Amino acid sequence: MQIMINNLSVRLGMRTVVDDVRIDVPDGALLAVIGPNGSGKTTLLRAIYGAVRPVAGSISIGGQDLASVPARRAARLRAVVPQFQHADVGLSAHTVVGTGRHSHVGWWTHEQEADRDAVQTALRQTGAEELAPRAFSTLSGGERQRILLARALAQQAATLLLDEPTNHLDPRAQLDLLALVASLPMTRIAVLHDLDQALAHADLAAVLHQGRLVACGPPAEVLTNDLTTAVFGVRSAVIMHPLTQRPHLVTAPVVRTDMGPPDPT
Ligand code: ADP
Fold first, then answer.
1. In angstroms, what CA-CA distances link 252 with 130, 145, 176, 211, 237?
2. Which of 4, 20, 79, 187 has the fewest CB atoms lying closer than 10 Å?
3. Quick one: how far is CA 91 from the chain centroid?
4. What is the Å distance from ligand 1's center to 6 Cα?
5. What is the pTM of this model?
6. The pLDDT of residue 201
């Protein structure tokens, strides 16, 4: 389903943290939201999943305005994979995935066959079947993120929101998780830190800077040296990766020109 973010503004305390942001994510696309720390990425995502209320603008999914959709129906429209979570609860991974069905069954009704099927399908899709009986708290970071992705998929929502899904994962787990997210058919919005990951996997990149949308489009067009210099304070170039033969974004510090002439000694 198409996600439309229409002139959205969010205030936290006295500050406008998301400022008049307008993004249109076509059906089936993966949008990467990128920007420096504090630019409003998480707040934008939180507004889409209803954790903060915008002061202006609207969000619609499949033409349905989230402000006028009951919570239960909204849960069928978008599922969330939150930021990396430390877990000390004693639930099994299977039970954690099952909580993705709460919007369908409610805590007062019994699990139905459809719920069991949805959990099994989600575990299979994420390659996490063998993890299911284990205690969630004993899983590695990468395994935990796969279970949280499975939980979101078990919700069988039309769209998927992911907040820095690869944070704290080792390189292999990052590549595996992103490949999995990229292979999913539904419309997805992922907050990503790594510009190269956005270039490699996203159909669109939206760049936030101080709460404002400064660029949105195909990552290869958006992630120019001028943009990374202005927004992230790093120079960048796109080169051919020697191992994968795909475009790869590399960064370097901005050369400072205000340091005066070199010391003659
Ligand atoms: P990002 O995800 O891009 O790092 P966030 O959306 O987390 O950015 O935060 C955007 C800005 O909002 C930051 O400057 C942060 O300090 C500020 N902020 C976050 N939560 C609150 C809050 N509860 N009250 C006031 N400001 C907040």
1. 41, 30, 26, 25, 9
2. 20
3. 25
4. 20
5. 0.92
6. 95
What pLDDT score does 262 carry?
59
Backbone angles phi, psi at 235, to 5 degrees: -80, 160
Element housing 179 (H / E): helix 171-183
* Average pLDDT value for residue range 182-195: 96
Q: Which of 12, 42, 83 to mutate to test the pocket of ligand 1 (most atoms within 8 A of CB)?
A: 12
Nearest CA, atom 5, ligand 1: 40
User: What is d(CA 99, CA 84) in angstroms, rounded to the nearest whole number?
Assistant: 17
Locate the ligand 1 atom nearest the alpha carbon of residue 163 and give its number.
Answer: 2
Question: CB neighbours of 51 closer than 8 A, spacing ≥ 6?
Answer: none
What are the tens digits of pLDDT across the range 79-135?
A: 999 886 666 678 999 999 998 887 665 555 566 778 889 999 999 999 999 999 999
Distance 14 CA to ligand 1 centre (A): 11
Name all domains of the chain by residue range, CATH numbers in brackets. 3-221 (3.40.50.300)
Backbone conformation region of residue 175, classed left if phi is above 0, alpha if psi is from -120 to 50, else beta = alpha
pLDDT at residue 255 in the model: 80
Q: State which ligand 1 atom lies nearest to the alpha carbon of 14.
A: 25
